[in-house]
Amino acid sequence: MTTVHSPHATKPRADAEAGARAPRYAGSLIVLHWVIAFGIIGLLALGLYMVGLPKGLPLKASLITFHKSLGLTVFLLVLLRIMVRAVVGRPPLPPMRPWQRAAARTTQGLLYVAMVVMPLSGYLGSSFNTYGTRFWGILLPKWGWDDKALRSLFFGIHEAAAYVLIALIVLHVAGAIKHQLIDRDNLLARMLP
């Protein structure tokens, strides 16, 4: 029995082999990426849910405390990821058009900015009220006094950063899907465990 080989039959195998040889992120960056990603998605979902709860509800107070602790934990992981990336670097982007390279770098840069601005603005907003911030039960220092205007300013920044972060996540995921399904350059394999 003879086997007829189609030129298209080897394409998925060739793509898989190219993905296996493509430069990958360091294992520590891969782990941090996914832990931070799931943490941020959970925090965004929780934040959007909490906003709709009535004021004074004990559940809301508990969720806010949990949200602050988890948010600061993710923030510390983001800082760790920035340090690890500075030390180990990242693999080069695959060949792509200049506008795509600029869009990828801009989106990633803005993601980092949003991941830093969001927890800092939340923490500062909490510093300008009477409650402060508890980090897994430990009361953190307050950097302000009870000031409604400053509290509103920082919480406004926190809320705006949440919507910017949602938009950036959508762009980031859309870009990854485009590279995987349309460009077929197996870019996603660089960040998969």
TrEMBL record:
Its cofactor is heme b. Residues 24-193 form the Cytochrome b561 bacterial/Ni-hydrogenase domain. Its main location: membrane. The chain crosses the membrane at residues 29-50, 109-132, 152-174. Pfam families: Ni_hydr_CYTB. Keywords: Cell membrane, Electron transport, Heme, Iron, Membrane, Metal-binding, Transmembrane, Transmembrane helix, Transport. It is found in: Cell membrane. It is a multi-pass membrane protein. It comes from the Bacteria. Belongs to the cytochrome b561 family. PANTHER family: CYTOCHROME B561, CYTOCHROME B561 HOMOLOG 2. This is Cytochrome b561. It comes from Paraburkholderia terricola. The lineage of its organism: Bacteria, Pseudomonadati, Pseudomonadota, Betaproteobacteria, Burkholderiales.
